[in-house]
Design brief:
Distance between the termini: 73 Å
Number of strands: 35
CATH class of the domain at 244-391: Mainly Beta
Largest sheet: 11 strands, mixed
Helix content: under 10%
Length: 541
């Protein structure tokens, strides 16, 4: 990918030290001056070329520009492509918030001289595939619509700005949109991505939590809040303490009464009260080798994990960082890796024994067995966990999630009316479907009355020598409709069953054979007042 560039400003490739936060990936990214949003340094230069895939146009959005100079002689921001120049920009001049370039590559140059104040700049960019690009500084309060979709660039997690709330209750409308989306696990910071936002009435209090490296703060009453739409794969995956959870070792302590307290793997479920699982080894100067293993009983899609420490105030134990291993039946253990660098991904764990922390897996893990492997910890390894995810669709064992397909249908057109018969999908969940119950009942009633009338007429008009009726009858419109497939030498069988109080169940068939064989295809037919049917008795009285 031509858009993939370095993730940090390297002095060997950049002139000066004026570059600050820089994260880019494929076709989007974020860039700031050094110390942003603090005062940028004197006499520095930041020069960087950013690109998107060839054939795409580059979109630049300036989230903030605060340069002290009014003349742009020594302090300025300039964009240069192979054919055009945009800027220089500085001081109080009018600056376009968005630039759509006729190229896939541009060089950004920021230069500073002697000055007293100024935040510098923050910009985001993306390819022309994302015309709804926003910056990392956009807040939900900037938008009036109750539903909207925007594109967040890579690199918004570490940009200064608060968020309040959580992924379940929603976020205060003063929160940064893209930072909240990372916190909620909707997008990954290193990738960016599309977000769909729902604006709702505010609540009296917002509860904060640490998730995906972003700390959300508690918030007070607000008039509005917002939530994100997702694929719905965020349910708690039930963990059975009997046999489903194992560990490399476990610890036994003695309480004040002299009784032994077991910190066994079965106590590692987050929703359970009491002590957590704790490892038998408390040393912190050895290579990580302890693990907690969970058997989900079958292959699942795992989109995240919540963890806590010991949850006991007199045992200040917790895991500060960990990696994830996973496997399926008869396969080897694999380590979850980052998308950008394809290296082992280390997740940020807990910072105390009590408060839960959430980490999301983008892309998700699809596996039956998972292991949490602590890397660093405080005093002793202690964990309670909750896995988040859902069942996977049939035949889907990749890291790509497919939504459950809707039920398909087969339609038979008859002049100006269409009759639709549902066909169960392989992915349809079990249960009673009103449509599948109602339609057969309607068909049964229609067939009973239609069949009785047809059978009576059939008995009176039946003639020997022609199992399909007289020549005059064959000239009717209805006969033409039935006869039409035969002209193409196709084969069909039409069966009508009905009940009569006075006679036993009758079956009327219309059978033809094509010229080459005796293959019969059976189809259900609905008859109305204009249609008639000739048949033969099957002999099954």
């Amino acid at each position: 990918w031509l858009g993939a560039v370095a993730h940090a400003c390297n002095p060997s490739t950049l002139r000066g030290d004026g570059c600050g936060h820089l994260v880019t990936y494929q076709d989007s990214g974020t860039m700031t001056s050094k110390n942003y949003p603090g005062t940028y340094p004197n006499h520095t230069v930041c020069e960087k070329t950013i690109t998107v895939p060839k054939g795409k146009r580059l979109i630049l959005r300036l989230g903030d520009l605060d340069i002290e100079s009014q003349t742009c002689a020594s302090d300025y921001l300039l964009f240069t492509s192979s054919s055009d120049q945009y800027g220089p920009y500085c001081g109080s001049m009018t600056v376009p918030r968005e630039l759509l370039l006729n190229t896939s590559e541009v060089t950004v140059r920021f230069e500073s001289g002697s000055h007293i104040s100024g935040r510098g700049f923050l910009l985001t960019y993306a390819s022309s595939d994302h015309p709804d690009l926003i910056t990392c500084l956009e807040r939900a309060s900037h938008y009036l619509k109750t539903e909207y979709s925007k594109f967040c660039p890579a690199g918004c997690r570490d940009v200064a700005g608060d968020i309040s709330g959580n992924m379940v209750d929603g976020y205060r409308d003063t929160s940064l949109l893209c930072k909240a989306a990372i916190h909620a696990g909707i997008i990954a910071d290193e990738l960016g991505g599309q977000i769909s936002v729902l604006q709702r009435k505010g609540i009296s209090r917002y509860e904060g939590i640490l998730a995906n490296g972003v700390l959300s703060r508690d918030g007070s009453l607000s008039d509005k809040r917002f939530l994100f739409t997702s694929n719905g794969c965020s349910r708690s995956l039930s963990l059975d303490p009997d046999g489903q959870i194992r560990a490399s070792s476990s610890w036994q302590s003695v309480n004040e009464s002299g009784d032994e307290v077991h910190w066994s793997p079965g106590q590692a479920r987050l929703q359970d009260q009491g002590p957590s699982w704790a490892s038998g080894d408390s040393s912190s100067n050895h290579k990580p080798r302890e693990w907690l293993e969970i058997d989900l009983g079958g292959k699942k899609k795992i989109t995240g994990i919540r963890t806590t420490g010991s949850t006991q105030s007199n045992f200040n134990f917790y895991v500060k960082s960990f990696v994830m291993n996973f496997k399926n039946n008869n396969s080897k253990w694999k380590t979850y890796k980052g998308i950008v660098n394809n290296e082992e991904k280390v997740f940020q764990g807990n910072s105390n024994f009590r408060d839960p922390v959430q980490n999301n897996f983008i892309p998700p893990i699809v596996a039956r067995y998972v292991r949490v492997v602590p890397q660093t910890w405080h005093q002793r390894i202690a964990l309670k966990v909750e896995l988040i995810g859902c069942q996977i669709t049939q035949g889907n064992d990749s890291l790509v999630w497919r939504k459950t397909s809707q039920s398909t249908s087969v339609s038979t057109k008859k002049e100006d009316e269409t009759i639709t018969r549902p066909v169960p999908s392989e992915e349809t969940s079990p249960g009673v479907n009103i449509t599948t119950v109602a339609i057969p009942l309607v068909l049964l009633v229609v067939l009973v009355f239609a069949g009785m009338g047809i059978f009576a007429a059939f008995r009176k008009k039946k003639k020997k020598g022609s199992p399909y009726g007289s020549a005059e009858a064959q000239k009717t419109d209805c006969w033409k409709q039935i006869k039409y497939p035969f002209a193409r030498h196709q084969s069909a069988e039409f069966t009508i069953s009905y009940d009569n109080e006075k006679e036993m169940t009758q079956k009327l068939d219309l059978i033809t054979s094509d010229m080459a064989g005796k293959c019969h295809i059976s189809r259900t037919v609905l008859l109305d007042w204009r249609c008639c049917l000739w048949g033969r008795e099957t002999g099954e009285k």
